Amino acid sequence: xxxxxxxxxxxxxxxxxxxxxTPIPKQHEILxxxxxxxxxxxxxxxxxxxxxxxxxxxxxxxxxxxxxxxEVMAVGDEVPNFEVGDEVFGMVNFPGHGKAYAEYVxxxxxxxxxxxxEISLQEAAAASLAALTAWQxxxxxxxxxxxxxxxxxxxxxxxxxxxxxxxxxxxxYVIGTASGNNYAFLRELGADEVIDxxxxxxxxxxxxxxxxxxxLGEENCLKSLKTLKPGGRLISIVGGAKEAVExxxxxxxxxxxxxxxxxxxxDLEQLTDLLRDGRLKVHISHTFAxxxxxEAHRQIETHKTRGKIVVNVE
Length: 314
Ligand SMILES: NC(=O)c1ccc[n+]([C@@H]2O[C@H](COP(=O)([O-])OP(=O)(O)OC[C@H]3O[C@@H](n4cnc5c(N)ncnc54)[C@H](OP(=O)(O)O)[C@@H]3O)[C@@H](O)[C@H]2O)c1
Prior knowledge:
The chain is of the alpha/beta class. It folds into two domains: 2-127 and 282-312, Medium-chain alcohol dehydrogenases, catalytic domain (Quinone Oxidoreductase, Chain A, domain 1, Alpha-Beta Complex), CATH 3.90.180; 130-258, Rossmann fold (3-Layer(aba) Sandwich), CATH 3.40.50. It contains eleven helices and 15 strands. It has helices at residues 41-47, 53-56, 121-126, 129-141, 158-169, 183-189, 202-205, 218-225, 243-251, 265-276, 293-300, and strands at residues 2-6, 15-19, 29-39, 67-75, 87-91, 104-108, 112-114, 149-152, 173-178, 193-196, 209-214, 228-236, 255-258, 284-288, 308-312. Strands 3, 4, 5, 6, 7, 14 and 15 form a seven-stranded mixed sheet that branches. The longest helix is centred in the middle third of the chain and has 13 residues, at 129-141. The chain is globular, with a radius of gyration of 19 Å. The relative contact order is 0.16. The chain binds NADP nicotinamide-adenine-dinucleotide phosphate. NADP nicotinamide-adenine-dinucleotide phosphate is lined by residues 40-42, 129-130, 133, 153-154, 156-160, 177-179, 181-182, 197, 215-216, 237-238, 259-261, 300, 303-306.
């Protein structure tokens, strides 16, 4: 099979398409013929030698990527719920070695879900890591409730655009931050208010928030504390809840947490319900061919991507 291998950390030019043995699924695993993968910021950080690179490098060859959608080609003896020919999607082995940039991927059955008929394979691949992150943060960690006020930072990005829609599906009042270019996009997604971070200071104009989803870092967390009500929760997905943030949060009776997404077929099944009835829409702004993976990485590294990036594998 063809796979995109990273022989050394560095720029996108370090990717090489190589011919490797097709993997064989173990008892609890599924062999998927991959049709589409989605690219996330963690892919680029890991490629550059940061994020998860150190934990992957001992398991050469390093094959990046975690988000896949495709067709089941073989199932292990102890996989009851999938059959050859099923279309599936999911985030494989995160934060381990996902090996998604390949024609075939072996995945634990517990990391996958059936693709809903209503969406394409490209949309399904895109609705994996970023959608799971938004779901796990808002539903499991923040336990959002109807009428709560939820502030989503970088609301036009991969995680953010899913988070806005999930919070709306739960009946929350949603405030998103983005540049003015994304105002109309966020309103279409359902955001009740959009803060143009280039022209407004969120900490000056937003108050009485129950939940903040931070994807920008410590400085943004410090500002966001001012928007939260006592008893509110700040969850950072970029490790922004550092000591200074925690100290101020304690004074204001705010709970803080740094969160890392994990693979979960069960969570994907719940997202599937929203994807099926259109409450969760996947916005794909860029699609690339398999041999254009370096361009896909350059795009995600702009930090300006609206929605998601997809790479077709065939
Ligand atoms: N811990 C975890 O489990 C986890 C999971 C997923 C992602 N992450 C991390 O979370 C971050 C976001 O991920 P992502 O996939 O959403 O990234 P992304 O898709 O690349 O986000 C791009 C978006 O960020 C917006 N943006 C950039 N600077 C901004 C600012 N100062 N204020 C508001 N919006 C801004 C841009 O909107 P404009 O063009 O309008 O500026 C753009 O739409 C990344 O660092 C990623 O590694 C962590």
